[in-house]
């Protein structure tokens, strides 16, 4: 595991251990009955795919370990509504505080401001977090293969599916892709960011996409800035793209999303 993932996994386990006593599984399940049903994350991505473009998962992200503070004026509900107006098919909202300045309240505020399906962008190291995610209203969860073993990945996916959520299984190299393809989720994300060097290279999606058949739904993640980037990724057979920084750095994120979605 890379140093950064090691560090995140360690504090995440501590966080979960501290939170669990305050919210038992039955307490979470009681909350789950009060949130609206899962909105069909994968379904929206597939339904909105246009011939010369990719469906957009627009990310609500204030900061990151590699870039520091990305956006000063940060109101999750306002950004979420602006992304929806700009044509996003789904949203991704960071809830990790130590590395991304995220928060659970950002997720809840963003999802309540839109009708789009929303993925909770969080580092999952315990199945309990899947119930927690659904109790916040999550429509999908992220399963990061670089951080966990196959058994935990399978458990997270099974729990997500049991709650009617989708699981985006994230890989960034060929061994992780091989592991991911044995799991029960059809939704695979290829992260163009190298988690050791933080370098981004769209070639990662081009290379790894060749391992994926038509029974999977592919999402290209990270480092996507221009309609030319989108055109390049569309050729890999990807259905969707996950974009954060390039949108968050622009004042008008509605226009930014529209520009990115306009074929080159
Ligand atoms: O800001 P970018 O380069 O457009 O990337 C978005 C998204 O892919 C990135 O935030 C991300 C991909 N996988 C993650 C896992 C955890 C936290 C963040 C991420």
TrEMBL record:
Coiled coil: none annotated. GO terms for molecular function: indole-3-glycerol-phosphate synthase activity; phosphoribosylanthranilate isomerase activity. The keyword Amino-acid biosynthesis applies. The keyword Ligase does not apply. Transmembrane segments: none annotated. Residues 5-260 form the Indole-3-glycerol phosphate synthase domain. Pathway: Amino-acid biosynthesis; L-tryptophan biosynthesis; L-tryptophan from chorismate: step 4/5. Its EC number is 4.1.1.48. It comes from the Bacteria. CDD domains: IGPS (cd00331). Gene3D superfamilies: Aldolase class I. One of its GO terms (biological process) is L-tryptophan biosynthetic process. It catalyses: 1-(2-carboxyphenylamino)-1-deoxy-D-ribulose 5-phosphate + H(+) = (1S,2R)-1-C-(indol-3-yl)glycerol 3-phosphate + CO2 + H2O. Keywords: Amino-acid biosynthesis, Aromatic amino acid biosynthesis, Decarboxylase, Lyase, Tryptophan biosynthesis. Belongs to the TrpC family. PANTHER family: INDOLE-3-GLYCEROL-PHOSPHATE SYNTHASE, TRYPTOPHAN BIOSYNTHESIS PROTEIN. This is Indole-3-glycerol phosphate synthase. It comes from Asticcacaulis excentricus (strain ATCC 15261 / DSM 4724 / KCTC 12464 / NCIMB 9791 / VKM B-1370 / CB 48). The gene is trpC.
């Amino acid at each position: 595991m890379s140093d950064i993932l090691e560090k995140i996994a360690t504090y995440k386990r501590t966080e979960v251990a501290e939170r669990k006593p305050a919210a038992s599984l039955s307490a979470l399940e009681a909350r789950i009955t009060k949130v609206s049903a899962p909105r069909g994350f994968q379904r929206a991505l597939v339904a909105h795919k246009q011939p010369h473009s990719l469906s957009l998962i627009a990310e609500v992200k204030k900061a990151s370990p590699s870039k520091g503070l990305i956006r000063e004026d940060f109101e999750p509900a306002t950004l979420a509504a602006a992304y929806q107006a700009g044509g996003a098919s789904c949203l991704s909202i960071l809830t990790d505080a130590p590395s991304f300045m995220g928060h659970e309240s950002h997720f809840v505020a963003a999802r309540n401001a839109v009708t789009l399906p929303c993925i909770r962008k969080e580092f999952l190291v315990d199945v309990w977090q899947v119930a927690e995610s659904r109790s916040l209203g999550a429509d999908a969860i992220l399963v990061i293969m670089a951080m966990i073993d196959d058994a935990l990945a399978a458990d997270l996916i099974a729990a997500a599916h049991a709650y009617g959520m989708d699981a985006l299984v994230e890989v960034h190299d060929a061994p992780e892709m091989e592991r991911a393809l044995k799991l029960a989720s059809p939704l695979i994300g290829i992260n163009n960011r190298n988690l050791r060097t933080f370098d981004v290279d769209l070639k990662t999606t081009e290379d790894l996409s060749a391992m994926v058949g038509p029974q999977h739904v592919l999402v290209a993640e990270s480092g996507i800035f221009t309609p030319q980037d989108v055109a390049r990724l569309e050729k890999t057979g990807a259905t969707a793209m996950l974009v954060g920084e390039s949108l968050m750095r622009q004042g008008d994120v509605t226009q930014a999303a529209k520009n990115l979605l306009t074929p080159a």
